[in-house]
Design a protein that fits this description.
By secondary structure, this protein is an alpha/beta fold. It has a single domain, classed as Rossmann fold. The protein is built from eight helices and nine strands. The strands form two sheets. A seven-stranded parallel beta sheet has the order 3-2-1-4-5-6-9, with helices on both faces. It has a two-stranded parallel ribbon with strand order 7-8. Helix 1 (11-21) links the parallel strand 1 (2-6) and strand 2 (26-31). Helix 2 crosses helix 3 (92-117). It starts with a strand and ends with a helix. The mean pLDDT is 91. This is Short-chain dehydrogenase.
C-alpha cells in the first residue's frame, strides 16, 4: 500500500507514518520543515517539503511518491494550526495562520487526493479535526470554528466522492499527548481531561480509516461530554466554555 501524510513530520502524523512503515507500506510524509523528522531508518519512507496552503506543492509531493505508477491508497491530512482566543487575544497573523492552514489547507488536501484517486475508483482520505469542532455556539473560538469547518468540508467531499469508491473519514480527537501539546502547555498537562497517548490515538485512527468510518470522536468519555454540552442552550454553553478557557489559562507556568 502507498500512504501519503500531510503534516506528517511530527506529532500524530509522524506516529501514523511509523505505524504504516512497520507494516511494510510505502509512506510519504511532508511538512514545511522536513528537518523536524528524526533520523530516518526506514527504507520505505520518503520525506518531502510541502505546505498544505500551497496546493501545487502538495500535488508535486504526491506525484513524487507515485513515480512507479502505484495507486495512492490512503491520504491523511494531519496539518493544523492552533492559537487560543477565547480567554485572551490573538494576533492577526495567528488568526490568518489558523484560517489558511485549517480551512484552505484542508480543501487543498482534499482536492489533491481527489484528483489522484478519482481515476483509480478506490482510495481513502482522512483528515484530523478536533472534538471541539462538534460544538456549535456563537462565541466558540476561531480554532473551534475552523475545526468545525473541517468536519463540514469532510461531509461535503464524502458525498461527492462516494460514487467513485473513495471513502472520507473525519477524525475528531480530544487531547492527545504529543510533543506539541506539551510545548503549548509548558509540559503541564494536568488540566487536559481524558488525555490519550499517541499509540492509542494511532490505533483508533488507523482502524477508523481501514473501516471507512465517517466520523470518529475519541476518547469515549470526551465524546459523550461534548455531546452532552452540545444539548445546552447557547448562552449557557458560551458561559461554560469561556470559564473553562479562563481556568485552563490560569496558573500557567
Amino acid at each position: 500500500m502507498t500512504i501519503f501524510i500531510a503534516g506528517g513530520t511530527s506529532g500524530i502524523g509522524y506516529a501514523l507514518a511509523r505505524h504504516y512503515l512497520e507494516k511494510g507500506y510505502q509512506v510519504g510524509i511532508c511538512g514545511r520543515n522536513p528537518g523536524k523528522v528524526p533520523h530516518n531508518t526506514f527504507e520505505n519512507l520518503k520525506i518531502l517539503q510541502a505546505d498544505v496552503c500551497d496546493m501545487d506543492s502538495i500535488a508535486a509531493a504526491v506525484r513524487s511518491l507515485q513515480t512507479d505508477g502505484k495507486p495512492l491508497d490512503i491520504f491523511i491530512n494531519c496539518a493544523g494550526s492552533y492559537a487560543e482566543d477565547v480567554a485572551g487575544k490573538i494576533s492577526y497573523e495567528e488568526a490568518e495562520e489558523m484560517l489558511q492552514t485549517n480551512i484552505l489547507g484542508t480543501a487543498n488536501c482534499f482536492e489533491v487526493a481527489r484528483k489522484a484517486m478519482k481515476g483509480q475508483k478506490k482510495g481513502s482520505i482522512a483528515v484530523i479535526a478536533s472534538v471541539s469542532g462538534i460544538l456549535d455556539y456563537e462565541n466558540s473560538s476561531l480554532y473551534t470554528k475552523t475545526k468545525r469547518s473541517v468536519i463540514q468540508i469532510s461531509d461535503a467531499y464524502r458525498r461527492a466522492l462516494k460514487p467513485f469508491g473513495i471513502s472520507v473519514t473525519a477524525i475528531a480527537p480530544g487531547y492527545v499527548d504529543t510533543e506539541k501539546l506539551r510545548q503549548l502547555n509548558h509540559n503541564d498537562l494536568h488540566k487536559k481531561p481524558f488525555l490519550t497517548d499517541e499509540e492509542t490515538a494511532v490505533n483508533i485512527i488507523s482502524k477508523a480509516i481501514e473501516n471507512r468510518e465517517k466520523l470518529v470522536i475519541f476518547p469515549t468519555k470526551m465524546k459523550w461530554m461534548m455531546k452532552s454540552l452540545s444539548l445546552l442552550p447557547s448562552f449557557l454553553l458560551n458561559m461554560i466554555m469561556f470559564r473553562k478557557a479562563q481556568w485552563m489559562k490560569d496558573n500557567r507556568p
